[in-house]
Write a structure and sequence with these properties.
This protein has 392 residues and is α+β, with helices and mostly antiparallel strands. 38% of the residues lie in helices and 17% in strands. Helix 1 crosses helix 9, helix 6 (125-138) crosses helix 7 (163-173) and helix 9 (207-222) crosses helix 11. The chain starts with 7 loop residues before the first strand and ends with a helix.
Length: 392
Amino acid sequence: MPRATEPRPLTKTEARRIWLQAQRLDTIEPFGAGPQAVAAAVDHLGYVQIDTIHVIERCHHHILYSRIPAYARADLRQAQSVDKSVFEYWTHALSYVPAKDFRFFVPAMREHRREGHRWFASVKPEDTRKVMRLLRRDGALTIRDIEDDVLTEKEHLWQSRKPSKRALQLAFYTGEVTISERTGMLKTYELMTRHFGWDKPPKPAPSAEITAYLLDRALRSQGVVSLDSICHLDAPSKGAVRRLIDARVRRGELAPVALEGAGKQEHWVQPEVLEANGAVAGGEGDGLVHILSPFDPLVIQRKRTELFFDYGHRFEAYVPKEKRLFGYFALPVLVGEDIVAAIDLKTDRQNKKLLMQKWSWVGKGAARSARKDYKRRIEEELDRFERFQLAE
């Protein structure tokens, strides 16, 4: 007898709870501390986005801090450069990913090697030969170690004027080099095989395994998934992922759910997650406060965040000042299971202060009767957040 596949109704409250559990934002110290906690967090989340904006601490450090209360920047440095448990590559953006997942990225590296990369189409073969020769001869290097570049015009806003830097970036995407260390945003490049101590890189994962990897990564870190959330900025993968979802539903390994407010957008949950976590309220997460990065996995998919939390986050760094609602670099504030505020912060490193630019109440925080308690709890977390900002 075939299994029933009629979607089970799922409230937003249930869905938020499942997602917060999957993101490990409902637990005080879900991954422990130290470099091994960094590796465990990146492994569980699947990736941690990297970004250059430094109004407050950069987002890769911020995302890890939100899940590792004792996080130190040196822990990420050791995980990347010494333990080599994480490495940098492109997911939906430049990210830290688990080194054990390397083989899932090899096909993309080979494609770039075979077809080039549209961002670096202007890289000349002689520039690539030059940087590879320097790496083989002198060892790991930064762009500052290359002093004989003749600067060229940029082809787009974020591109370097240094041909050697563009050649290194292309070699990064093709998998010939990796970023072995970061000092701030200064990257040290190293031959991939030498960094990991390989004679040759791992074999590429077959396409079917990559599809399963994408689905399993989303289920682990999102709990409740949709085709859009699994394939965020990766539309070409949707067909294969959808076929795998349908197969798992038929086998009873996934359950379709009708998420409140989602309309026709389909969502799925693992049955054991639905039973174990969806109906459990309360716990230590009720009292937790998280000041989140705008690049946090809970926020980066804006439409999903708005669907689950009834909060539409706006990233306004590139919005004209007069049109900003929340501020230049507003951070969503999660209290328990609700996003209740967006606070625009700036770190004054010279005077060792965390500056409050603007505080906006949203969601449950919009109710005046709740603000006094929320404000007290958020201000307590702000004290800890400031210490993190100014440390090291």
